[in-house]
Amino acid sequence: MSGTLTVRPEDRDGYLAACRTVVAQARAAPGCLDFAISADLLDPGRITVLERWATRAELDAFRGSGPADEQAAVLLAADVADYEVSRTYDGAPLPVPTSIGVPASSALLSRGVRDLRDLTGITERELLSWHGVGPKAARLLREALAEHGLTFAG
Q1: SS3 for 50?
Q2: Is 73 a residue whose pLDDT tops 60?
Q3: I need a labelling partner for 58 at 20 to 30 A (CA). Which of 10, 12, 128, 152 fits?
Q4: pTM tops 0.90
């Protein structure tokens, strides 16, 4: 879960203070990886919300009916969405080398490949079937993967 809440600037500190108990309860709940409600550094009426849960079932078990009536009364807007993250990576990003060229880079981006580790789930043959990816780009990607001890699938 991630997003923003909007309150009048003069209500923000009180709203955040009232959220302290909820944050403590969430962080103590089974499956909570992170739970934060914080003031935006630039917009005095904006509050940022971030929740990370190990499973959907644990999120659902914690989730109540929403903010208390007195908190809901000061909300001007809420733009909070539920995201399902398909993969995470430890350590620094492993960018796709730009030397593969614009057509190959575009092909990879259109398939959601933004990190070399994304390539470990596909075969080199599959990669070569993508419009814009030729033998030279595949070779450069294979070499870049090898530099990090990685390979294409299968």
Answers
A1: strand
A2: yes
A3: 12
A4: no
